[in-house]
Amino acid sequence: MEAVIIGVGLHPFGRFPGKSAMDMAADAVRAALGDAGVGWPQVQAGFVGSLEVYNPDAIVGRLGLTGVPLRGVFNGCATAGTAVAMAARAIETGEHDLTIAIGMDKHPRGAFAADPSVAGLPAWYGQTGMFLTTHFFGMKINRYMHDHGISHETLARVAAKNFRNASANENAWRRTPLSVAEILGSPVLNYPLRQFMYCGPDEGAAAVVLCRADQAHQYAGRPVRVRACALRSRRIGAFEVQSPSLPVGEQAPSPTVDAAREAYEIAGIGPQDVAVAQLQDTDVGSEIIHLAENGLCKDGEQERMIADGETEIGGRLPVNTDGGLIGNGEPIGASGLRQIHELVRQLRGTAGARQVPGEPAVGYAHLYGAPGVSAVTILSR
Amino acid sequence: MTGSRQVPVAEGLFTWPSDEPRLIGARCAGCGLVGFPAGPACQRCGGTEVTETLLPDRGTLWTFTTQDFRPPSPPYDGTDTAETFRPYALGYVELAGEVMVEARLTEPDPARLAIGQPVRLAIVPYTVSADGTEVMTFAFAPLDGESRADAPKEA
Fold this sequence. Notes:
The complex is a heterodimer.
Chain A: E1 3-14, H1 21-36, E2 45-49, H2 60-63, E3 70-73, H3 79-92, E4 98-106, H4 123-127, H5 133-148, H6 152-167, H7 180-184, E5 188-190, E6 193-194, E7 203-212, E8 224-233, E9 245-246, H8 255-267, E10 276-278, H9 284-293, H10 302-307, H11 324-328, H12 332-348, E11 362-369, E12 373-380
Parallel strand pairs in A: 2-3, 2-4, 10-11
Antiparallel strand pairs in A: 1-7, 1-8, 4-7, 5-6, 8-12, 11-12
Helix pairs in contact in A: 3-12, 5-9, 6-9
Chain B: E1 6-8, E2 24-28, E3 34-35, E4 50-54, E5 58-67, E6 88-95, E7 99-105, E8 118-128, E9 134-142
Parallel strand pairs in B: 1-9, 7-9
Antiparallel strand pairs in B: 2-3, 2-4, 5-6, 5-8, 6-7, 8-9
């Protein structure tokens, strides 16, 4: 039985002093339940993700102690992809009729900091200043620019677009538009990436309610079909984050390429059918590279596409219409559910000022993160 | 600081002190994959029978970036502060068909680095402890006087 999304809810992303991640998540769940016209006791199972909250499943204490099975999930930046996939799978297998995916986080300011042992890496890797995921993003786009002729101005155009989209999103964090010149004038953090070309860890929560397709008519929300969920980890030879060494002479594609191929195959949908996409934009280079890795363009084509405005709202393939990670920041557990929230609104035609014209029928969500893991979700009307 | 004490950041990473230091990698007895640092298992096949192997000390720069702000500390243990921090560069270096390693680069200026540039291993201090002991790590230095594969690009 196919799973459909009948409700989405989101707590704004940003900084909320004094408000806990779990309180934000409870707000997001109530919004998603209200959107679906469902009461909490009707939820038969849930999957909840967070980096900072040790027991995110304790959220039942704020929603009602119904005895519902709630499972914690974590896959780094791909956490929400796993939460949605498992919530959909529980319906597809017939185990449950109505499920929920929940994500929450509240990160301290600044770059993520952790002991390298959390990723199975030696202490010296952290001591000598190598254990920063931002290095990988700088190095990957630097090589990509060299190989495929992407300019520094194109990097800045992606950031300008995402800040512009965020300015039309009342839930976004970074809502002040910035010009290409302002972005190119910001300090370099990891060459060639500058301050305004990165997302920042922040706070927020989101939730998605799903049910059996044949029962969707019982609920309020206009259903959006879950056509595919795929999650893949890195293969030997892929150029991946947090790798003290890599083999030479045996190159493999990113797990994004593998997850995308699997998702397109499951959905019976091709890249040419995608009407609106949310791609992991940890930094602008990631958005540019992920366009190609998800099959949405050829390597190098981004230079022209972005100059021509093809990824803008109103362009041929709008990308990160709600501002993406650059405009919203990244509360890790919730980030991918924000993507789903935006796609559902776009496919329902209720995205307001940032609605993609032409009644988009297929939405595409992509996550990527440490230690080389990618999740893809394809939705359709 | 003549006569200052020097210690490696970790044992088993590189041969040192030596006039010709080398990184210590591991070769899988099962599939032959070379990895760095020497670890307990092969990344390709999962084999646990690995033997240490010294890696070539010259290679070419495959890609690079810079670190322009002081990394979060811990885990970074440099004794500098946000004010005294000096940016550094790092990259992936392809070692003569053996393996690609991630390393600091001795040249911090991205305008003086280029993909394809020949580089050579150097053991350098990355910080100085309160008692004056220099803590040594591995890095790669551009080889001057050799032609670059291509020039750096700027917008």
